[in-house]
């Protein structure tokens, strides 16, 4: 599967009130492996830079004044995203801004270009209910090095998100099979509940004590990566999740 990890920086929080995209970062992954392809663009927002936004990303109106306008790079961005599953942390924010920029130039919204959108913020809320699930919080929980993140930056954040995603889904991504995975991507907010493996007609083989100990060691590693009980433990003991 081709995925693009995507992030933007903006002049503010509301595209309907004139806020604009000033930076776009995209990182490509195919079959859970980074390909080395990325897209990184600074954009002239054609307006001033509020102090609050400058404190977040450090991009001044002066720095952006000679950068291309969104209309000049829209085709480049659309081509990079085309046909991919786009992975975004708090997708509603970035998609809202991108659709506003696309609408200004009479272009189709993102939904007509990409294959699907996966919101890692929603995914993290399901895996870690009641906990902080910002990108910084997930980096700390999953032991992803974000020491270079003194400012928000679209490319850096997309790279961090790719690492967070791999660790967030390690040992769980292939467990339910491709069909269940596709269903999960189409309905990220749904509680899938425990998967019934008995329907697969799998043979049952008793483990030796040595094999059971090795299995427990693997589960402990998955627990550490997930910041709590991994999916396998939930499948083994559904009553513990209730």
From TrEMBL:
Q: Which reaction does it catalyse?
A: DNA(n) + a 2'-deoxyribonucleoside 5'-triphosphate = DNA(n+1) + diphosphate
This enzyme's EC code(s): 2.7.7.7
Q: Where is the signal peptide?
A: none
Residues binding a divalent metal cation are: 7, 9, 157
Name the coenzymes or cofactors required: Mn(2+); Mg(2+)
Q: A single Gene Ontology molecular function, please?
A: DNA-directed DNA polymerase activity
Subunit annotation: DNA polymerase III contains a core (composed of alpha, epsilon and theta chains) that associates with a tau subunit. This core dimerizes to form the POLIII' complex. PolIII' associates with the gamma complex (composed of gamma, delta, delta', psi and chi chains) and with the beta chain to form the complete DNA polymerase III complex.
The protein here is known as DNA polymerase III subunit epsilon
Q: Which organism is it from?
A: Inhella crocodyli
Highest classification ranks of the organism: Bacteria, Pseudomonadati, Pseudomonadota, Betaproteobacteria, Burkholderiales
The gene from which this protein is expressed is: dnaQ
